[in-house]
From TrEMBL:
Annotated keywords: ATP-binding, Cytoplasm, Ligase, Nucleotide-binding, Pantothenate biosynthesis
Catalytic residues (positions): H34 (proton donor)
Assigned protein family: Belongs to the pantothenate synthetase family.
Gene encoding the protein: panC
GO MF, one annotated term: ligase activity
Note: The reaction proceeds by a bi uni uni bi ping pong mechanism.
Coiled-coil annotated spans: none
Main location: cytoplasm
Enzyme class: ligase
Binding site for ATP: 27-34, 148-151, 177, 185-188
Protein name, as recorded: Pantothenate synthetase
Length: 332
């Protein structure tokens, strides 16, 4: 299908709506990760609904020295990909359309959650991001808006803003799309030379190392739960060594594991990549609670996020994976 290119909110508002409107917000330079978001939006909106893709490079969320001027702008290709992926319209407003009076004097603050990790590395970034997301939600008036889980802190902050400020929109997170070698799809990947791209694989490899360590710990905890409850049962099993195996599993799970071991496994990969040519320069590695992006403790249970950010050459990349603690089942 062919997507209609719209430049003004008035043109968008003039469209007849007969079903749910699903919006996918992007900064352009669309790739397969965005296509996955659009296809998911199409399923949610259904045949009677409408999918709108926004393309807007927001100057408010770029700090001094960041890549606003060189950020790729490929609108013709974006409109084509959006249409073939199931979008009905592409809303690509100018800066003047979004900020008609210049930079807004009133902005949304991301609060303490926006000062951690990405916020600490890029001061003011999340204030600018939330401000434009709020404006685009008002301009596009969706029933549901979709965002990629690769930007986990961004997604968490948007969910918090929508909940705290009573936006009448459903927020849907869509899993990260990866290349076959594990590298998370990003518009910034095109900046990488072949050698830099090989080094950049350390981001996903570090996350996978942490995930594997987490899976081993969860398996050990599951084994520890099988320690016999009665002395008679323990004595019966001790003949074949099962009680000792269970005790060993319990000891490893409680003394040698936890979040610190997961971080250490991931950190080792990053440390090795720092010695490559070209080297990887990490910004942070963190294992956090997605509700507020604070570090999790040893007794944490529930959903967590293992997140990493690093530079390769002049390009800064982020990645993350979800982990589940305390289920004694699948690790992710």
């Amino acid at each position: 299908m062919t997507a209609t290119l719209l430049r003004t909110a008035a043109d968008l508002h003039a469209r007849v709506r007969t079903g749910r409107r699903a919006v996918v917000m992007t900064m352009g330079a669309l790739h397969e990760g965005h296509a996955t978001l659009i296809r998911t939006a199409r399923k949610i909106a259904g045949p009677e609904g409408e999918v709108v893709v926004t393309v807007f490079v927001n100057p408010l969320q770029f700090g001094a020295g960041e890549d606003l001027d060189r950020y790729p702008r490929t609108l013709d290709a974006d409109v084509e990909l959006a249409g073939t992926s199931g979008a009905d319209a592409v809303f690509a407003p100018s800066v003047d359309e979004v900020y008609p009076g210049g930079e807004p004097q009133v902005r949304i603050s991301a609060g303490p959650m926006g000062e951690r990790l990405e916020g600490a590395a890029r001061p003011g970034h999340f204030d600018g991001m939330l401000t434009v997301v709020a404006k685009l939600l008002h301009l596009t008036r969706p029933d549901v808006a979709l965002y990629g889980q690769k930007d986990a802190q961004q997604l968490a902050l948007i969910r918090r803003m929508v909940r705290d400020l009573n936006f009448g929109v459903e927020i849907v997170g869509v899993p990260t799309v990866r290349e076959e070698d594990g590298l998370a799809l990003s518009s910034r990947n095109r900046y990488l030379s072949p050698a830099e791209r090989r080094t950049a694989l350390a981001l996903s490899q570090a996350l996978f190392a942490g995930r594997d360590r987490h899976a081993a710990q969860e398996a050990l905890r599951a084994r520890a739960r099988e320690v016999p409850a009665s002395r008679a049962r323990a004595e019966a099993l001790s003949a074949i060594g099962e009680s000792r195996a269970a005790a060993d599993a319990h000891a490893v799970a409680t003394t040698a594991g936890g979040p610190a071991a997961i971080r250490a496994a991931a950190r080792q990969v990053l440390d090795e990549a720092a010695r490559l040519d070209p080297p990887l320069t990490p910004d942070y590695l963190a294992l956090v609670d997605p509700s507020d992006f604070t570090d999790i403790g040893d007794d944490f249970t529930g959903e967590a996020v293992l997140a990493v950010a690093a530079r390769v050459g002049a390009t800064r990349l982020i990645d993350n994976i979800p982990l589940t603690f305390g289920t004694f089942g699948d690790a992710s």
